[in-house]
Amino acid sequence: MADPELMPRARAKKEQIRTGAQRLFLDKGFAATSTDAIVAEARVSKQTLYAYYPSKEELLADVLEHLIEDGSRGGPPLTVEGASPDSRDELRRALDALARKLISGLMDPDYVALVRVVIAETRRLPRLGRLFRSAVPERVLGHVAALLEAAREAGVIGPVDTDAASRAFVGPLLTYVLLDGLFVGDGPPRPRGPERIEAAVDLFMRSID
Asked: Where does the HTH tetR-type domain lie (predicted)?
């Protein structure tokens, strides 16, 4: 049986590696950050580093995933596990909360900076793009699909293609990230007010009447 004290220590060690790597990726970029530099910055051995992260690509993907989770500034993680809305009002509130957390995480300045790193490196390192896709976009779409599936099973909404509907929900939100985050140049992201998110959620709810 595993030592019950191991899990908290393991989580702390992983966070230590992730935090050190994030600083280096932001400061030097992905390609210029060596595993030796990560080991030194995180103050761990190479054996420990590889035990948690077999590759730099997986480490960067995990950094991005956790920036999304932490983007709500201390709120609960981006998840809808166990959510089962039994009315359209409940579904709308759940989608609104999910959209706010998503935008908050995606507009984090560190997240935006690291996504630029991923975009720059993906052509040279296709695996990095695949890892990013599975760690962030596909995961977010899965959360939305799970929520819509629960609403469909509860009779809150009618038959709907949850994959297409999830993309229809997330897609418009990403325009704010692209136009007000990634493409603002060297300045910080410029998040829009909550009324923009509310409007996007309202439009989506009308589309699944």
From this structure: 11-71
> Could you tell me the two tokens for 53?
């992260």
DSSP-assigned letter for residue 77: -
pLDDT of residue 90: 93
Q: What is the C-alpha separation between 100 and 43, in angstroms, rounded? A: 35
CA distance 37 to 40: 5
Q: What is the torsional sign of CA 164, 126, 56, 60?
A: negative
Contacts of residue 42, Cβ cutoff 8 Å, sequence gap at least 6: 16, 17, 19, 20, 21, 49
pLDDT value of residue 83 = 65
Average pLDDT for consecutive 10-residue bins of the chain (209 residues)? 58 92 92 94 94 92 80 46 79 92 87 87 87 84 92 93 95 90 83 89 93
21: left (phi over 0), alpha (psi -120 to 50) or beta: alpha
Nearest partner of 101 among 164, 60, 144, judged by Cα: 144
Q: Residue 79's pLDDT is what?
A: 55
CATH for 64: 1.10.10.60
Domain count along the chain: 2
For residue 96, CA distances in Å to 144, 172, 190, 201, 209 come to 11, 13, 20, 6, 17
